[in-house]
UniProtKB/TrEMBL annotation:
InterPro entries in the record: Aminotrans_IV, Aminotransferase-like, BCAT-like_C, BCAT-like_N, Class-IV_PLP-Dep_Aminotrnsfr, D_amino_transT
GO term, biological process aspect, one: D-amino acid metabolic process
Cofactor (UniProt): pyridoxal 5'-phosphate
Name of the protein described by the UniProt record: D-alanine aminotransferase
Known catalytic reactions: D-alanine + 2-oxoglutarate = D-glutamate + pyruvate; L-isoleucine + 2-oxoglutarate = (S)-3-methyl-2-oxopentanoate + L-glutamate; L-leucine + 2-oxoglutarate = 4-methyl-2-oxopentanoate + L-glutamate; L-valine + 2-oxoglutarate = 3-methyl-2-oxobutanoate + L-glutamate
Gene Ontology terms: cellular component: cytosol
Lineage: Bacteria, Pseudomonadati, Pseudomonadota, Alphaproteobacteria, Rhodospirillales
NCBIfam families listed in its UniProt record: D_amino_aminoT, PRK06680.1
Pfam families in alphabetical order: Aminotran_4
Length: 289
């Protein structure tokens, strides 16, 4: 079965998907994106992702390329055409195509949209059972990390450093020594007292949809949590740690730099939270109280 993509109103074979050389996403990274998990053919947290997409666009004074209902239909059609059961949908909106000039083009220039899908087998992921390692890296990003922009060069540099160190993820550390988040995930620790800790959602991090779901589910289940700053030193001493994102769910972290976390294997609260999130993604439980 050919793999399809969606580009500016058309479903095309994936290999034929292309954008114009003067697309502002290509020229200036002037665009935003979302990654949504597909579990059992259904989008996980569809509306929260579309809410965040709308917010990112609004913050950058861009508009949605189509109404939300139409967008949902396009995603469903792409998922259907690609026979996607488990995996992700990537959607990207840019400020459109215009002669190269830093200032915005006229309002008449329509935003450009691209959507692709990728198959993934969430049931067989070794990272869930074995855990992963992370390395720290300085957070050199801009002041609006709450916007999900395609301008990801500092994140790419950090992820490359992690890859070269044989690690799964880089945890970004600000000038005060606090962990902000991962290069493509949110960062969490669990204290010796079993309290879940993650940084508050400020302009310094992307407020992950998975992050929000985990907090809601923790609240429902009476798991104590705190949204507060934590330093790299505190993370080294944590009982457990994990990263979250649409495609990494709750991925246990078993080593940070040279510090083994717990006994070097995924801890019990991580395993519980992963199970809870997997149940949620599969539609076996809901987020509403
Ligand atoms: N932070 C960053 C920098 C990210 O790139 C991502 C994933 N796109 C996340 C956090 C996690 O967000 P989500 O749970 O919505 O995937």
């Amino acid at each position: 079965m050919p793999r399809y993509c969606y580009v500016n109103g058309r479903f095309l074979p994936h290999r034929d998907g292309a954008v114009h050389i003067e697309d502002r996403g290509y020229q200036f990274a002037d665009g935003v994106y979302e990654v949504v998990t597909i579990a059992n053919g259904t989008m996980v947290d569809e509306d929260p992702h579309l809410d965040r997409l709308e917010r990112s666009l609004k913050e950058l004074r861009m508009r949605m390329p189509m109404a939300r209902g139409a967008m949902k239909l396009k995603v469903r059609e792409l998922v259907r055409r690609n026979g996607l059961k488990d995996g992700l949908v990537y959607m990207q909106v840019t400020r459109g195509v215009a002669p190269r000039n830093h200032a915005f083009p006229s309002d008449k220039v329509p935003p450009a949209i691209v959507m692709t899908t990728k198959k993934m087998d969430f049931a067989k992921m070794k990272k869930f059972t074995d855990g992963v390692t992370v390395v720290s890296a300085p957070d050199i990003r801009w002041g609006r990390c709450d916007i999900k922009t395609v301008s990801l060069l500092p994140n790419c540099l950090a992820k490359q450093a992690a890859t070269e160190a044989g690690a799964y993820e880089a945890w970004l550390v600000d000038e005060k020594g606090n962990v902000t988040e991962g290069s493509s995930s949110n960062a969490w620790i669990i204290t010796k007292d079993g309290v879940l800790v993650t940084k508050p959602a400020t302009n310094e991090i992307l407020n992950g949809i998975t992050r929000q779901t985990i907090l809601d589910l923790a609240k429902q289940d009476g798991v104590p949590f705190e949204e507060r700053e934590f330093t790299l030193e505190e993370a080294y001493e944590a009982k457990e740690a994990f990263v979250s994102s649409a495609t990494s769910f709750v991925t246990p972290v078993v080593k940070i730099d040279d510090h083994v976390i717990g006994n070097g294997h995924p801890g019990s609260l991580c395993e519980k939270l992963l199970g809870t999130y997997q149940d949620y993604a599969a539609g076996r439980r809901s987020r509403a109280a």
